[in-house]
From TrEMBL:
GO terms for biological process: glucosylceramide catabolic process. One of its GO terms (cellular component) is membrane. Keywords: Glycosidase, Hydrolase, Lipid metabolism, Signal, Sphingolipid metabolism. Coiled coil: none annotated. Belongs to the glycosyl hydrolase 30 family. This is Glucosylceramidase. Residues 7-241 form the Glycosyl hydrolase family 30 TIM-barrel domain. Its EC number is 3.2.1.45. It is an enzyme of class 3 (hydrolase). It comes from Haemonchus placei (Barber's pole worm). Transmembrane segments: none annotated.
Length: 298
């Protein structure tokens, strides 16, 4: 066994040694082995990210295990070591590789660092973004990133309700469904191609979670009674999945602005306008009291 990090580190830290040294090559082999073992059991993968929330690795007292990568470290790692190794294996040669996989506060600079290097860029297909610090950076940075690198996709790779306030599930809470709907529309209006919830399902406490990070989920499972509850967030996500097909094309930005009613977090109506099929357009409006969709055919 090769030890890749300093022993007993729980929080932040990086791999031992220089980027693309023997420990980085061992780590790349470890990642490839993961995909190969799943493939042996009939489980294929569409894509991967270079590292989950790499900036968290700079936090020495972070409560999860975290590994530091800066944008330049990711660039050099994928260019010299990981990218060529992935392409050399039948199991991993077609994987879609995403950089960042962290909050959009790091954009567009993170994307520029990687995609402005032609050798690194050829191994990376897109950018992954999380929603947790969206309040600190406007969604327009997503459009800026797209405009600078239009050949690369942007995927929302993680979001969950209750990460900061109101820890644990709140059954039947439509406010959290509103949060999802607004964020999905905002992302799609800024060239994000898809939106991913963090949790498939959680128990009634919002776990299990070994660091007691109890949050909410679209599906809550009551294991003692063998029941599960579909939360309002489930229906918010389901609505978009139902009316916006995977082949829909975004056509216009926010359509309507209006002052919201008191008691709502968001201060404007939000709209999504997409080309649904060859002769059909989709207009989807979120008016803080519900979501409505209309299809217009020619």
């Amino acid at each position: 066994m090769i030890q890749l990090r300093i022993e007993n580190i729980q929080g932040g830290g990086a791999l031992i040694g220089e980027v693309n040294g023997k420990y980085y090559r061992s780590y790349a082999n470890y990642l490839i082995k993961f995909f190969e073992e799943y493939a042996k059991n009939g489980v294929p993968f569409w894509g991967m990210t270079l590292q989950n929330e790499p900036t968290s690795g700079a936090l020495p007292f972070y409560k999860w295990q975290a590994m530091l990568f800066t944008a330049s470290m990711q660039r050099d790692f994928v260019k010299v070591t990981l990218g060529p190794m992935l392409k050399s294996k039948n199991t991993t040669k077609d994987l879609k590789v995403m950089a960042l996989d962290d909050n959009r506060i790091s954009l567009p600079g993170w994307a520029d660092t990687i995609f402005n290097d032609p050798e690194a860029s050829k191994y990376v297909d897109g950018i992954g973004v999380h929603w947790y610090l969206d309040a600190l950076m406007p969604a327009s940075v997503l459009t800026t990133t797209h405009n600078r690198h239009p050949e690369k996709f942007i995927l929302a790779t993680e979001a969950c309700a209750g990460a900061f306030f109101g820890h644990s599930p709140i059954l039947g809470d439509w406010y959290r469904a509103e949060e999802y709907a607004v964020n999905i529309i905002e992302d799609l209006n800024n060239f994000v191609t898809g939106w991913t919830d963090w949790n498939i399902c959680l128990n009634e406490q919002g776990g299990p979670n070994w660091v007691e990070n109890f949050v909410d989920s679209p599906i809550i499972v009551n294991a003692t009674s063998d029941q599960f509850y579909k939360q309002p967030m489930f229906y918010a996500m389901g609505h978009f999945r139902f009316v916006v097909s995977c082949m829909s094309r975004y056509t216009d930005k926010q359509l309507i602005k209006s002052t919201s009613s008191a008691g709502h977090l968001y201060e404007s109506y939000n709209g999504l306008n997409a080309k649904h099929t060859k002769n059909t357009a989709l207009l989807q409006l979120f008016d803080l009291d519900g979501i409505s969709s209309s299809l217009f055919g020619s």
